[in-house]
Sequence to fold (465 residues):
Amino acid sequence: MAAPAPERRTFLGRLSLPERNYLADALRTETVGGVLLLVAAITALIWANTPLSSSYTAVSDFHIGPASLGLNLSVEHWAADGLLAVFFFVAGIELKRELVAGELRDRRTAALPVIAAVCGMAMPAMVYLLVTAVGGGSTKGWAVPTATDIAFALAVLAVIGTSLPSALRAFLLTLAVVDDLFAILIIAVFFTADLNFAALGGAFAGLALFWLLLRKEVRGWYIYVPLALVVWGLMYNSGVHATIAGVAMGLMLRCTRREGEQHSPGEHIEHLVRPLSAGLAVPLFALFSAGVSIGGDALGQVFTRPETLGVVLGLVVGKTIGIFGGTWLAARFTKAELNPDLAWPDVLALASLAGIGFTVSLLIGELAFEGDATLTEEIKASVLMGSLIAAVLACILLKLRDRTYLALFAEEERDEDLDGIPDVYEQDNPEYHLRMAAIYEAKAAEHRRRAQVAGASRDGGGSPA
Fold:
C-alpha cells in the first residue's frame, strides 16, 4: 500500500480570527511607536548637526544615578541599558506567546519563519565578514546588520499607506520576534564583560523569586516593579548586558488562557507595557543614539570604510537575500504552497523591508566598538544609511503591488452583516448565510421601493394640471 502523500500547507494563508485580532492590536501600537521612533531619530540628527550640537553632547553625557550601586550612568547609557530593558521585556512576552499560542507553537508552521529569520541573520553577517575581509577592516561588527526593527518597518508602512494583508504582517512580526531572540543570544554570549559572580548570583536569585511569585499567583505591581528594578541593577553590575533581565522576566509570564479568562496575564501585561516601550523607551533610546554627524566626510566614510560598507550591504543585500532565499528553500522542501492570492515578489518586498535594522543594530554597534568613539559614530551612520536604503527599496517593491494589497485588505475587513466579525471568517456558518440573505432582500426591497417612488413621480409630472 502506497504511503499517504504529505499534507501540503499554505504559506502566508489566512490567520485564525483570534490571531488576527491580536495582531491588529499589537501592530497598531507598534505603528504609532514607529512613527514616534522616526520623529525621535530625525530630531536627534537635526540636534546633532546644528549649532546646538554641543548641547546634544552635554545632555547625552550628563551622568546621573547612585555611584555607590555602580549606577552613575550617562543619559545615553541609561537609555541603552535601562529603557531598552523595557523593550526587551515586551520582546520576551512576545516570544513566549508565539511559542505557546502563536505562529511558533506548531513546529511545522514555525519552520518557515524560523528558517527565514536564521538565514536573514546569517547572510548579513557573512556579507559583513566578506566585505571586511576584502577591505582589511575589523570583524567586530559582524552582528550589527543582523537585526530587524519591527517598529521602524511598520512606521514605513504607515507612511507609504500600504494596506498589507494580515498574513504578510504576521510573517513580518514573527520574523522580528525570532530575530529578537537571536539578537538577545548574541548580546548575552558575545558582549558580556568580565563577570561579577556575586551580582550575577543575586540577579538569578531575584529572577527565581520573580518566577515563584508568578507561580503562586501573587498580584500587585508594587511587588513586581521594585523586584524588577533590583534584578536589573544586579544584572547590570554582573557584566551581563542588563537588557537580558527584561527578556528573562518576560519569558516567565504565563501567556496561555485559562477557562473564563479573556486574556492571559502575559497578554494583559504586554497590553499595558507595550505603549510604554513603543511610545517612550525606544524613541528616547533613538533620540540619544541616532545623533551622529552626517556631514560630507561622514557620509563618504560610510561607503569607503570596510566596516561601514559591510553594515550597509549586510542590511540591504544580506537581509533581502537571506530571508527570501531561506523562505523559498524552506517552502520548497517542506511542501508548503504559497497563498494563491500572493506571489513570491511579495516575499521579496517583505525581505527588503526587514533590512531596516535600527534599535538593536545601534545597540550592538555601540557594544561592538565600545572605546572607539569615531568608529562607533560611523557605524551608527551606516546603520541609518542602510536602513534608509532598505526602506526606499521596500517602498518601491510594495507600491508595485499596492492595488493587490488594497483588494485583499478590503476583503479581509468586509463585514456586511455588521456583527463585528469579518465575513471571510463566517462563510462556512449557516447563520451567516441566513443573515446575508435577509440583508440582500432588504436592500432589494428598498431598491424596488425607490424605483416605484421615482416612477410615480415621473407619471405625476407628465399628467395635466
In short: The domain at 9-191+241-413 is CATH 1.20.1530.10 (Na+/H+ antiporter like fold).
